[in-house]
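Project outcomes to date are best conveyed with an example. Our students and postdoctoral researchers have been running inverse folding experiments weekly, and each run begins with a structure described purely in tokens. The record below, which covers 320 residues, was selected by the lab manager from last quarter's runs and is presented without edits.
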């Protein structure tokens, strides 16, 4: 089986999900290829080779500096046609889903989105997908011919650490690298913030925080552990924080090692985005809040008192 993993980059540097996809490909077996598209892809490609990316196809061009799904799809379409891959996997992130679904549509639509794992037995492939917030797992086997596409949820596989391979530098026709859309400028919403999809620790805030002015308390707790800030939809809708922070059915699906739900009731639409987190800690003043049904640890109390006390304790522990 010929497998292509799509490695995405930020500022010419690999993002961690790329190494998770390689591990997913390794678990299937077969011939592994990885594609990396960037302004200058060489050093990211070399790192991917050393981490098990197999034959790493590096495509460098000024127009590939920032993610552009039209151009990225043009380039990958031509690579998939040329190399005849059986399976193409990308990350189930905002960019990954936009790109992989566009590619799958070009090849007839054999695709599964947001999968937990890709599996093979002999020559037959299957993917596992969770539903109802992880309460039901389905196993899907692709039918028909042509390449099969899947986006794999971040943090479902460990990062691949090593391997052997080579960099294959591919030059692309200029027509593929000039599309209708041009990215003129990129503005980062909050510089230095940890990306929710990649975070090992997330501290998420809900309406129990009472007012936008209290959110820095939660951000400070996240910062004290090197974690990311998340939010329930209630506080996004209220305009307290940006939509990009929202976790849940209509926000991001996350899978960190540690998830703090602070002043969040635990509505099903929130749970579907975070209930597969390895350890969940809930802070809520209502002992009967549904969030305690999925929490491994619960603190019943006023978030405005518990959160600063926890931050103070953690800072003392981690720094001392
Ligand atoms: C189609 C659809 C899609 C949706 N998608 C999403 C989604 O993606 N993500 C999402 O989050 N929601 C989503 N929702 C909304 C969801 O149903 C809930 O309304 C929302 O999650 C509630 O947010 P919350 O827990 O912050 O607020 P609330 O439900 O109001 O809960 C606030 C909690 O804070 C506690 N509290 C109050 N004061 C304190 C205090 N001082 N200290 C500690 N705790 C306190 C309360 O006991 C309560 O449990 C969606 C809804 C629909 C219909």
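After processing, the design step wrote out the following sequence:
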């Amino acid at each position: 089986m010929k497998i292509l993993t799509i490695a995405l980059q930020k500022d010419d540097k690999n993002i961690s999900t790329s190494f998770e996809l390689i591990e997913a490909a390794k678990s299937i077996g077969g011939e592994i290829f990885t594609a990396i598209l960037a302004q200058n892809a060489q050093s990211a490609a070399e790192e991917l080779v050393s981490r098990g990316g197999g034959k790493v196809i590096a495509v460098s061009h000024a127009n590939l500096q920032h993610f552009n799904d039209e151009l990225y799809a043009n380039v990958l379409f031509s690579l998939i046609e040329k190399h005849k891959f059986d399976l193409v996997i990308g990350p189930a992130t905002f960019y990954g889903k936009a790109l992989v679904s566009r590619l799958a549509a070009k090849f007839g639509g054999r695709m599964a989105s947001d999968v937990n794992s890709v599996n093979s037995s002999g020559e037959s492939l299957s993917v596992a997908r969770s539903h109802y917030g992880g309460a039901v797992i389905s196993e899907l086997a692709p039918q028909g011919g042509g390449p099969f596409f899947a986006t794999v949820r971040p943090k479902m596989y460990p990062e691949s650490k090593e391997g052997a391979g080579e960099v294959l530098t591919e030059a692309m026709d200029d027509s593929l690298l000039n599309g209708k859309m041009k990215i003129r400028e990129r503005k980062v919403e909050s510089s230095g913030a940890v990306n929710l999809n990649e975070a090992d620790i997330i501290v998420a805030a809900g309406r129990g925080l009472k007012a936008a002015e209290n959110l820095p308390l939660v951000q400070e707790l996240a910062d004290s552990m090197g974690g990311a800030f998340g939010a329930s939809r209630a506080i996004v809708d209220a305009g307290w924080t940006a939509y990009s922070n929202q976790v849940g059915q209509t926000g991001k699906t996350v899978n960190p090692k540690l998830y703090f739900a602070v002043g969040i009731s635990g509505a099903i639409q929130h749970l579907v985005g975070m209930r597969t987190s390895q350890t969940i800690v809930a802070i809520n003043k209502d002992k009967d809040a549904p969030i305690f049904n999925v929490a491994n640890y619960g603190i019943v109390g006023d978030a405005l008192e518990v959160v600063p006390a926890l931050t103070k304790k953690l800072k003392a522990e981690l720094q001392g």
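The chain has eight helices and 17 strands. The longest strand covers residues 31-38. The training component of this project remains on track.
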